[in-house]
Amino acid sequence: MIRIGTSGWSYKDWIGSFYSSNIKPVDMLAAYAEKFRTVEIDSTFYRVPAKTTIEKWRKSTPNHFKFAAKFPKKITHESDLTGVEDILAKFLDTMSGLKEKLGPLLLQFPYSFKPDMGNNLYKFLKILPADFDFVVEIRNKKWLDDRFYDSLREAGICLALLDHPWMPKPEVATSRTLYVRFLGDRNLIPDDFSRERADRTRELEDWKKLINALEDNIDDFYGYFNNHYSGHSPATAMRFMGMMG
Predict the structure, then answer these.
(1) Is pTM beyond 0.90 here?
(2) Domain ranges of the chain
(3) Exposure winner among 19, 78, 161, 232, fewest CB in 10 A?
(4) What DSSP string runs through 72-91?
(5) Confidence of residue 116 (pLDDT cuts 50, 70, 90)
(6) Angle CA(162)–CA(168)–CA(173) in degrees, nearest 5?
(7) Average of pLDDT values for 210-231?
(8) Contact 36, 5 (CB under 8 A)
(9) CATH superfamily placement of domain 2-244
């Protein structure tokens, strides 16, 4: 199953290009879901949403739609992965309200999260319940070795692959899910996301080859485009959808 979408959906800069010029913010998700089958929620990084918000998201999207969501930064950025059981339980309980529409949950770690935190990470992964689909993103390439890959495989957890200036693109799948984040370079794209500002065709062709090379090892592919990747993530995501068939 191939699911491609964007990181977030409520951008004012998309009005008049992706969204109609008279759209209301409350209607954006439903309009988004007419074009895409998945979205990555960015707001959960900052706070655990209310259960009423989760229910609105679920009701605004069709049956086949999937939500991915970032873990709260209180876990990934403001802790050493110990003493976080309460917020972990709250986050998982809240996100489970999406029911069949819940996709992968992303642990996005900062560059400062280095391999000397490995023991804490591996202990933390062992307390994650098996009935969720988890993804780990690291932004320090020193992690990328066989011990790290094997630890994720043992836990059945996906390694997020990144299109990011300082991260390599290893041809590795650590679970039956493949999760790719097209992040780009924030220094090259201005904060005006109304149109594409960079041609990423060559990079997308390379990603297509990598994904196809891993096809026998995966069941599901999720790909999410950030606005800073090309300037206007909906257009780039739809182009990649066409390339992937």
Answers:
(1) yes
(2) 2-244
(3) 78
(4) PHHHHTSS-SSS-HHHHHHH
(5) very high
(6) 65
(7) 96
(8) yes
(9) Protein of unknown function UPF0759 (3.20.20.410)
